[in-house]
Amino acid sequence: MPILINGKNLTVDEVIRVARRGEEVRICEESKIAVKKARDYVDRKLSEGAIIYGLTTGFGKFSDTFISCEETADLQRNLIISHTCALGQPLPKETVRAAMLLRCNALSRGNSGIRPQTLYTLVDMLNKGVHPQIPEKGSLGASGDLAPLSHMVLTMIGEGEAEYKGEIMAGKKAMEKAGIPIIRLEAKEGLALINGTQIMTAIGLNVLWDAMNLLKVSDIAAAMTGEALNAVKKAYDHKVHDLRGHKGQKDSAENLLKLLDGSDNAHELNKNKVQDPYSLRCVPQVHGASRDAVWYVYEAVSREINAVTDNPLIFPEEDEVISGGNFHGQPMALAFDFLKNAVAELADISERRSERLINPQLSEGLEPFLTKHGGVCSGFMIAQYAAASMVSENKIYAHPASVDSIPSSGNQEDHVSMGTTAARTAEMILDNSQKVLGIELFAASQGIWLRGEKGLSEATKAAYDFIRKTVKPVDQDIIMHYEIKKFDEMIKTNEIVEAVEKITGPLK
């Protein structure tokens, strides 16, 4: 069933379905009417000789330069051609598709003044799989994502490059192969297509979705480490967490109790120790805080994907054209900086649990570095190095992009958000954190094997059995790289969560 968009109630889940699964998109009838009404209004104002930013004036510092009606089409094409300054590697297809969908959704609200056929062209590209090649760098996140979105529009006008059916080709050729006519931009259209926050939001939304899954992985990894280190699970008792009251903390504690239910290794009480170190005892508090942060970002993103973020905005009913600043990416910049810290902390505490598993002074009697042949074999010694390296790298990426600003466009645009940088560094942190959690799962499964694979809860046994389908216990030193990659893959595909939830039901 196609996903209907109207600029008002698109969901994060629907964006993921379009971006990653290729589901069809259609514009609802009410939006078609609204878009046409706004365009008719723009055409009327042009015929009246109205002076409107971006329609009959230049852009940025050139806003005080008048453009004749005869030059308005040239103005829009030149806008796109001149703004295609993005650099770096092409954005992944799922990000491009998400950005295209979000731009369609914003335009369907009927406040941008774009022609219906131009909007339909972008929808057709999405549905037929024409994906413009959009370089990842070059946005300040202030007047929207001008440079990268310009690369999206290049394909619409028969320029640039696009991916179609797995092949990179000239944009014009891709459009021809897909049977989509290229367009000639008219007044307001170039600006309406590129003046928005859709690139940063598309990147950040994909990171957000995977971070939501990583929260579950983190609880599973902690539970498995708890099995290997004979954790005291009484610390997860709901009475403790009810007294503090944070939802994320309570949810994480509930997950841990569910994951460790029936374990003979993780005890309510342990006669040999009163309490665990923080990396085990405080899992609900740390994971829970990240969980609350992620849900804050979810709410912010849910608002942004239904926002109209171009300029100027068209209000036909009120007979107004208003120049504002909805293109400024600060709401997303702050949200994605928050997301960065939340995800980085999942990796930070995970690496500390990995250290406890391999360190003979901390591992509750496990063989040093999780090998039976210490000295001849190094075991998991350098796996922890790798985790520590990525955790430290995350600390660099976690520096907030949103506290930076640099003036542009002759100081007309004198405060910028750097929201796209925040989203991109969030993506880097996510990738590192997935790998760090993979190393913990690897080490925890080795610890469980060394303990004799006994007394596991049903949930941790499901995780352990899933791991053992592809990764064998490490008896002699091996090339660890290949095994760690397997863990990275099972996290990125969410397969290990799915294996566990067959036993537990949906985790929080």
**Under the CATH scheme, which architecture of the largest domain would be assigned?**
Up-down Bundle
N→C terminal distance: 28 Å
β-strand number: 9
Largest sheet composition: 3 strands, antiparallel
The radius of gyration over CA amounts to 26 Å
Number of helices: 19
Series of secondary-structure elements, N-terminal to C-terminal: EHEHHEHHEEHEEHHHHHHHEEHHHHHH
Question: Reading side by side through the largest sheet, how are the strands ordered?
Answer: 4-6-7
Unreliable parts? none
Give the percentage of residues in beta strands. Answer: 5-15%
Shape: elongated
The CATH topology of the largest domain, please? Answer: Fumarase C, Chain A, domain 2
Indicate how many domains the architecture comprises.
2
> Residue share in helices?
55-70%
The chain-level structural class is mainly alpha
CATH class of the largest domain: Mainly Alpha
Assigned CATH superfamily of the largest domain: Fumarase/aspartase (Central domain)
**Average pLDDT taken over every residue:** 93
Structure description:
- This protein is mostly helical and 508 residues long.
- It has two domains: 3-196, Orthogonal Bundle (Fumarase C, Chain B, domain 1); 204-308 and 334-504, Fumarase/aspartase (Central domain) (Fumarase C, Chain A, domain 2, Up-down Bundle), CATH 1.20.200.10.
- The protein is 56% helix and 6% strand.
- It is built from 19 helices and nine strands.
- The chain has helices at 12-21, 29-47, 72-83, 93-107, 116-128, 146-156, 171-178, 189-194, 198-228, 238-244, 247-259, 278-281, 283-304, 330-358, 381-397, 419-451, 458-468, 480-492, 495-504, and strands at 3-5, 25-27, 87-90, 130-132, 135-137, 161-164, 167-170, 313-315, 320-322.
- The strands form four sheets. It has a three-stranded antiparallel β-sheet with strand order 4-6-7. A two-stranded parallel ribbon has the order 1-2.
